């Protein structure tokens, strides 16, 4: 499966915040350390806040922080909220023109594979990804 840039950036934001649980961060700061577009990151953070992963506070002393403990956030759950399309092939779509959709077993096999993929990621918590925050932040030159 190929993840979108949106999901990649969402996971990066969460890892950055998870590595600094006692501090607030700004979108500008996160965009700078990762070398990514601040405008794009704004959309990502808005989505994360809407789904309850990140708390965003405006104004002086504001910024971003995790909305829940890192041990409660799984990569699988984040991917489910940031990816819009898990349709791997045409037969997953409501409207498809494949003539063998009925008897074809490929769809079930691909669905099983996707379920297994997400099940593995459901076992990966943000806390496990930021277990070594100093090394993570050093890699980002923070």
List the quaternary state of the chains: single chain
The N- and C-terminal alpha carbons lie at a distance of 31 Å
> What structural class should be given to the helix and strand makeup?
mainly alpha
Overall mean pLDDT: 91
Low-confidence sequence ranges:
none
CATH superfamily of the domain at 5-85 and 126-139: Winged helix-like DNA-binding domain superfamily/Winged helix DNA-binding domain
CATH class category name of the domain at 5-85 and 126-139: Mainly Alpha
Looking at the overall shape, the CATH architecture of the domain at 5-85 and 126-139 is Orthogonal Bundle
Describe what this molecule looks like in 3D:
This protein is mainly α and 142 residues long. It has a domain at 5-85 and 126-139: Winged helix-like DNA-binding domain superfamily/Winged helix DNA-binding domain (Arc Repressor Mutant, subunit A, Orthogonal Bundle), CATH 1.10.10. Helices cover 51% and strands 6% of the residues. The chain has helices at residues 5-19, 27-34, 38-50, 75-82, 106-122, 126-129, 133-139, and strands spanning 54-57, 63-66. A hairpin with a 5-residue loop joins strand 1 and strand 2. Helix 1 (5-19) crosses helix 3 and helix 4 (75-82) packs across helix 5 (106-122). The radius of gyration is 18 Å and the shape is elongated. It starts with a helix and ends with a helix. The model has no long low-confidence stretch (mean pLDDT 91). InterPro entries: Tscrpt_reg_Rrf2 (IPR000944), WH-like_DNA-bd_sf (IPR036388), WH_DNA-bd_sf (IPR036390). It comes from Hyphomicrobium sulfonivorans.
Secondary structure blueprint with pairings:
Elements: H1 5-19, H2 27-34, H3 38-50, E1 54-57, E2 63-66, H4 75-82, H5 106-122, H6 126-129, H7 133-139
Antiparallel strand pairs: 1-2
Helix pairs in contact: 1-3, 1-4, 2-3, 4-5
């Amino acid at each position: 499966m190929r993840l979108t840039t949106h999901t990649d950036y969402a996971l990066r934001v969460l890892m950055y915040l998870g590595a600094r649980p006692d501090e607030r961060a700004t979108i500008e700061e996160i965009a700078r350390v990762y070398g990514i577009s601040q405008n794009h990151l704004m959309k990502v953070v808005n989505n994360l806040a809407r789904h309850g992963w990140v708390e965003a506070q405006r104004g002086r002393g504001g910024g971003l922080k995790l909305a829940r403990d890192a041990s409660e956030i799984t990569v699988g759950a984040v991917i489910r909220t940031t990816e819009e399309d898990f349709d791997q092939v045409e037969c997953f779509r409501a409207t498809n023109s494949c003539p063998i959709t009925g008897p074809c077993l490929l769809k079930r096999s691909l669905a099983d594979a996707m379920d297994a993929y997400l099940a593995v990621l459901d076992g990966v918590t943000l806390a496990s990804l930021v277990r070594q925050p100093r090394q993570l932040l050093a890699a980002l030159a923070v």
